[in-house]
Amino acid sequence: LGSRASPRSAEMAEADKQLEEVWQDREIKFDQPPQQLKLRRGEFQIDSINSVEDTKGNNGERGILIVTNLRLMWTSAKSSRTNLSIGFNSVSSINTRTVNSKIRGNSQALYVMTRFNSTRFEFIFTSLVKNSPRLFITVQAVFKSYETTKLYRDLKLRGAIIRDKELVMLPNEQVYEKINGIWNLSSDQGNLGTFIITNVRTVWFAVLAENFNVSIPYLQMKSINVRNSKFGQALVIETTASSGGYILGFRADPVEHLEEVYTQINNLWKIFSVTPIFGVEYTIDEKSGDAKENFVPRVEDDVTIMEGTDIEPCLLYQPDGEKEIDREPVYNAELGLAMERMREGTTLQTLWSIV
To answer: pLDDT tens for residues 206-215?
Structure first.
């Protein structure tokens, strides 16, 4: 349906950055300056859970877990500069297991398995409030909502988005315009189709084949222009690098409609950029009671950060199979010492080889 943009193209260099880049749901960040944890436009706090331990990386340390519509944020109660930001798009699974917490001992914890930049990370959060299921219920429910609303945020090619020439609507989506006579210029002869312009995306589908379509969320638009092409004047939509960096061309028939289509999409894109809609919805049950009590405002520490040789924070969250923080110590006759039980298949020789 389109060609990929050249990273060196003049158009990319001149593209108007209508909507600031959204990284909050797509990246994992460790120990960031507190301003990185501020909510961006369109992001809102869903829950604030006090007395949560980052059992994997900061065992024995209390903190607060903030759940937003885009990510999980954990901040140490001792220092706001000890923190995590985990985007939901990087999360592969969420479940519960028993772990050994320095504060609570053996207890149920929330396991968050992630992948970011081809690296897997494992996060373990333990609620230090006895008999409180909110940590598990809220995080799993919000993640499920995020997973089922990807069409708000992700470009989709050839999706099941059209039924009987009508758009399969998303919750809270509003159609503003349906325009026939729009040619997709992805092939030499072009394909005749229809534009459907809504408050969250622009959709095109072919008249002769509904499954030949594209859904372009405003979140993934990088620029919109009217340019000359071998087909004459064309509407050109360039998408962000995170969505594949596509350049999608369309021609209107009659051509006089092209400027109207451009103006309509561009105006809706501008409106969306001010108040972006990410699609994730979840409401905390007021009967749970302690939602407001659990809110702890973030305060920046009045300290100077000194560079040191401490271990990189990300190394603390490497998955380790069935390991639950620290394995029990066992006596090793070869060393004559007690040592942490080795993983199955590991020998002292292989450990020395690693060193």
So the answer is: 999 999 999 9
